[in-house]
Amino acid sequence: MKKKHFDEVDGDRRLTITTENFKIKVFYPIIDTVLMQLNIRFKAMDNVCKTFDFLNPNNLLSLREDNIVKESYDFIQTYKDDISSDFTGQILSLKELIKNKNLKTINEMANFILTNDIATSYSEILVACTIFLTLPVTVATAERLFSKLKIIKNYLRNSCSQNRLSNIAILNIEQKRTSELKTDKLIKDFSNSKARKMKFV
């Protein structure tokens, strides 16, 4: 009989775990974790949507003036670094302007302001629309960014400066655009800019 070391496992050893045991110990915990993470993320996005809910043209037209004032005040407090107190007056004025325009979304309202060249008069509303429309739907982009950073800044590049790390990360994340760059020209331009030889003639 062949001598077996302490860390060896029999080659023909079969798993003794049953289907029910697998469900309880592996499958159900994974499903619970996924559901919990989804609930956390959707709850956060739901809170954001509620903050901007009164800006939706349908909701804006159905709200009373005192409710609009209250909602706009809360909104200004939330985004006080971006939205000024003029927002309340602008939103009340815009409500009258869009009554018969059949606008349904915040995106349509932003386009309406831009196409009718009234962005100066409703600048605060346009900023609010821009904030809403540029909010990330998911955190996947941020997660990919950190994933790339872990690949880039390994123990071999531990002394990489912040500026260089950011530049490499952008090149890595935007691979599609990076592949379109003419590397030969970039290398030539870089070498010319770093060349120490001076032409005297």
Automatic annotation (TrEMBL):
It holds the Pfam family Dimer_Tnp_hAT. Residues 129-175 form the HAT C-terminal dimerisation domain. InterPro entries: HATC_C_dom. Signal peptide: none annotated. GO terms for molecular function: protein dimerization activity. This is HAT C-terminal dimerisation domain-containing protein. It comes from Macrosiphum euphorbiae.
